């Protein structure tokens, strides 16, 4: 009886598994002509638009990802990847086929040429089904792709953006064993040789997508006497003999996303591998990580919405004392409050995204969105486990996976306390 009642609950993450038509990989070129029309419409409109009044191509992005999830991410596959702690290669290929791994990459490099908000929409929608796949897409788009797009040379863009848009994952290597929240106290060094090349030595920890990546953006210090001003970003190919993939972490959650050590031992790279200039790594990382925080916030909102969508139908169908659980007033108050929290978090996420696109300072808003969304995800996932009772406590169904996946939200892209510290700095400045 329990199985019959709950099997339908997995519908939020499942459907008949089938590949999307490759024609969908051209969906963005078909809608790109709508951009100017939409911009003209918004400019000529005298009415104020709601925050969720997406452009035509952003709306298409949302529909595309929802359709992708429906046809390519059944619960059976999501569960299998979680148990095996491994990204399904075919799913990875399909993410590239439909353009989700190069959303903001310009079309000239094979990308979709879409907005930052489009990336945020994709991250949220994927997280409603599997936050692990969501974070893979998030890191690719908001960190790696944007670093190359914003700071790469023409030669670097030709080589790496084309790869990122078509088939290659990239990894962002900042964290080390002794530098987590104090990320720029890193010990990885880059020593320059007489011929202008650099020798990298050090070990990076907790690196997302490192097992599958085709190349790595490595932060290393070229001059420790300058402190963080000596930090430089280097592009290191997977085939470099001085780079090795170390221990793969056996994680609590987001298990389909690989997290490994990246070991650099006398890793020689040319001067053309420097991204953004010598000593510019700190600036690059800070600017990009602020965007990444909005991405993680979107992941947490999607996670909260996903577990909520999974739970409410059960509360409506499950009866106790001849009454649907959803109809008890005490329960109504609880899930109504959860819905308010999810909506508030979503508003913070998209406000930060729009501020970024408008060229405004969004550091405070990104920190707020990341902090609050991760708190909401934890609260909602915990409540949903309680509301589902025994069903929520089993690994057969996806509620407990959402619960495990939400924990990381308070840790990566700046812990909750680091984000609160950032917010506090802005508050003190505002009241000077």
From TrEMBL:
Catalytic EC class: oxidoreductase
Catalyzed reactions per annotation: (2R)-2-methylbutanoyl-CoA + oxidized [electron-transfer flavoprotein] + H(+) = ethylacryloyl-CoA + reduced [electron-transfer flavoprotein]; (2S)-2-methylbutanoyl-CoA + oxidized [electron-transfer flavoprotein] + H(+) = (2E)-2-methylbut-2-enoyl-CoA + reduced [electron-transfer flavoprotein]; hexanoyl-CoA + oxidized [electron-transfer flavoprotein] + H(+) = (2E)-hexenoyl-CoA + reduced [electron-transfer flavoprotein]; 2-methylbutanoyl-CoA + oxidized [electron-transfer flavoprotein] + H(+) = (2E)-2-methylbut-2-enoyl-CoA + reduced [electron-transfer flavoprotein]
Gene Ontology terms, MF aspect: flavin adenine dinucleotide binding; short-chain 2-methyl fatty acyl-CoA dehydrogenase activity
Domain of life: Eukaryota
Localization, UniProt: Mitochondrion matrix
Record-level GO BP terms: carboxylic acid catabolic process; fatty acid metabolic process
Pathway(s) annotated for this protein in UniProt: Amino-acid degradation; L-isoleucine degradation; Lipid metabolism; mitochondrial fatty acid beta-oxidation
Keyword annotations: Acetylation, FAD, Fatty acid metabolism, Flavoprotein, Lipid metabolism, Mitochondrion, Oxidoreductase, Phosphoprotein, Transit peptide
Enzyme Commission number(s): 1.3.8.5
Domain Acyl-CoA oxidase/dehydrogenase middle: 171-267
InterPro entries: Acyl-CoA_DH_CS (IPR006089), Acyl-CoA_Oxase/DH_mid-dom (IPR006091), Acyl-CoA_Oxase/DH_mid-dom_sf (IPR046373), AcylCo_DH-like_C (IPR036250), AcylCo_DH/oxidase_C (IPR009075), AcylCoA_DH/ox_N (IPR013786), AcylCoA_DH/ox_N_sf (IPR037069), AcylCoA_DH/oxidase_NM_dom_sf (IPR009100)
Assigned GO CC terms: mitochondrial matrix
Domain Acyl-CoA dehydrogenase/oxidase C-terminal: 279-427
Ranges of residues in domain Acyl-CoA dehydrogenase/oxidase N-terminal: 55-166
Needed co-factor(s): FAD
Oligomer status and interactors: Homotetramer.
Family, per entry: Belongs to the acyl-CoA dehydrogenase family.
Protein name (Swiss-Prot/TrEMBL): Short/branched chain specific acyl-CoA dehydrogenase, mitochondrial
Lineage, highest ranks first: Eukaryota, Discoba, Heterolobosea, Tetramitia, Eutetramitia
């Amino acid at each position: 009886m329990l199985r019959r009642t709950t099997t339908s609950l997995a519908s939020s993450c499942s459907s008949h598994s089938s590949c999307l038509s490759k024609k969908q990989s051209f969906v963005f070129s078909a809608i790109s002509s709508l951009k100017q029309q939409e911009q003209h419409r918004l400019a000529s409109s005298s009415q104020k638009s709601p925050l969720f009044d997406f452009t035509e191509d952003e709306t298409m992005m949302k529909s595309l990802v929802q359709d992708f999830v429906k046809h390519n991410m059944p619960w059976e596959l999501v569960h299998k990847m979680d148990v095996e702690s491994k990204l399904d290669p075919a799913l990875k290929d399909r993410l590239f086929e439909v353009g989700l791994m190069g959303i903001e990459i310009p079309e000239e490099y094979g990308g979709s040429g879409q907005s930052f908000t489009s990336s945020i929409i994709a991250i949220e929608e994927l997280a409603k089904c599997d936050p692990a796949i969501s974070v893979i897409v998030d890191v690719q788009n908001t960190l790696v792709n944007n670093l190359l797009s914003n700071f790469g040379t023409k030669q670097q863009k030709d080589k790496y953006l084309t790869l990122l848009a078509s088939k290659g994952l990239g990894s962002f290597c900042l964290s080390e064993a002794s530098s987590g929240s104090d990320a720029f106290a890193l010990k990885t060094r880059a020593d320059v040789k007489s011929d202008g090349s650099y020798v990298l030595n050090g070990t990076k920890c907790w690196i997302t997508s490192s097992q599958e990546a085709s190349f790595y953006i490595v932060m290393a210090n070229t001059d420790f006497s300058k402190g963080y001003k000596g930090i430089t970003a280097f592009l290191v190919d997977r085939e470099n003999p001085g780079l090795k993939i170390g221990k793969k972490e056996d994680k609590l959650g987001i298990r389909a996303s690989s997290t490994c050590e990246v070991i650099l031992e006398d890793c020689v790279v040319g001067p053309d591998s420097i991204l953004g200039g010598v000593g510019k790594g700190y600036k690059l990382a800070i600017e990009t990580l602020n965007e990444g925080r909005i991405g993680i916030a979107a992941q947490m909102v999607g996670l909260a919405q996903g577990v909520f969508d999974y739970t409410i139908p059960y509360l409506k169908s499950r009866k106790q004392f001849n009454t649907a659980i959803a109809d008890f007033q005490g329960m109504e108050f609880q899930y109504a409050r959860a819905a308010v929290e999810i909506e508030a978090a979503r508003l913070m996420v998209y406000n930060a995204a729009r501020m970024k696109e408008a060229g405004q300072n969004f550091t405070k808003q990104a920190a707020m969105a990341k902090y609050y969304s991760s708190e909401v995800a934890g609260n909602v996932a915990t409540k949903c486990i309680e509301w589902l009772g025994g069903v929520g406590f089993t690994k057969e169904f996806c509620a407990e996976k959402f619960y495990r996946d939400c924990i990381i939200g308070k840790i990566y892209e700046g812990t909750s306390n680091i984000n609160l510290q950032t917010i506090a700095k802005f508050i003190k400045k505002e009241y000077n």
